[in-house]
Amino acid sequence: MAGLPAERMGWVPAPQQGWVAPHIASEFPGLGIAWVEVDAKPGKSPDAVRRRLRDLSDRTYGSQAIRLRERPIPWAYRVFYRQIGLDPDRTRTPIEQLTLERLHDGGFRSKGLPADALGIAIVETGVALRAFDADRLEGDLCIRDTAPGESLAGGSEEMLRGTLTIADGRHPVGLLFGATAEGYGVDQASRRIAVAAVQVKGVPQIAVEEALWMAAATLEAS
Amino acid sequence: MPALLRDQEFAGLGAGVDERQARLELRRQISRLEAELAALFGEAFGHTQVPHRVEGVAAAPRVLELGELEAVRDSLADRIAEARSTLAGRSELETRNRELLREMLDEPERFKWVRISRADVGEPGCGVWHSRPVLGPIGMLMGWWRVKVSSGCPLAGRLAAVEQAKAREAGR
Prior knowledge:
The complex is a heterodimer of chains A (222) and B (172). Chain A has 222 residues and is α+β, with helices and mostly antiparallel strands. Chain A has one domain (3-221): Phenylalanyl-trna Synthetase, Chain B, domain 3 (Phenylalanyl-tRNA Synthetase, Chain B, domain 3, 3-Layer(bba) Sandwich). Chain A has helices spanning 3-8, 22-27, 47-59, 62-67, 72-83, 94-105, 115-125, 205-221; strands spanning 16-17, 19-20, 32-39, 128-133, 142-145, 164-167, 172-175, 192-199. Chain A is globular and about 50 Å long. Chain B contains 5 helices and 3 strands; from the N terminus they run αααββαβα.
């Protein structure tokens, strides 16, 4: 990505591009991961963020939710879910999950930071984002499958061989579109947050950059 | 299918098989079918329910094998066929209901007490056409029937009440 165009835009910090294991990349052209690290603490969302959530709620209707799966980016994630064996109507894509909650609750409810920052960026762009505690990550983020006997960091349960994960330089830190490893999520002790975007085929690079920028800017401003 | 694509099965034919290419092709088909199913789901919403669920084949995300990708592709194709058939059936029913409504409007006395809703003819809203006697029992005795068109959904009234409540709050 990313580094260069982002630098040209004068956006600091620039997003970093992770890598995808070559045999996975050859199976899923277009799969990628990028992330940005921000100095931010978890906590209650400021008024400006809550107001933004209310504005977003007013712009999101039931009819849009029904047609969501026909829009290019949400559709791309649904397709990818199918291709990796998940049912997107059971394990929902981030944008569909948020939209469903919006319809159920009557609005996007504030869950504090960083969840609200990610939620705003996901709803605006459709790109799948997630947050990690940046201080606990080592090396670059990547998408790879598990080796025999490997488990999520901090966990004892061995994962099936070939499970797709997001990993740092040492361990898998979360399932791809699934649970985050214990100790790698953002908690009250976190002081630096890594916002990661998973890109799949059909999701334009510009949308990924916009999602990361939006989430990071919201976190930095809070 | 995976068995059919094993290299040794084709060795005698002198044909090499690249399973990865087959998987890529299946993934391409899955993406096309998912788009088609999404369009049918959107088209049917509000008229009828179409089957659209396709169970996942893995508990956790992973690279699916050829047979598993085929299973997903086939399930999607089945759902699309079922959805098309459901939509066609619904469309036929709505056409019949529209014909019935036309006849009912022409001769209400032939369709005593029949109610046809807007949903029955595939139109949005909550109104109904109801064949009723004019002047109640007198009309029933005299054979005076007419089709009464009900007003629409009550939702607009409730929303108006909410707006008024908001205005009152703002005025305080």
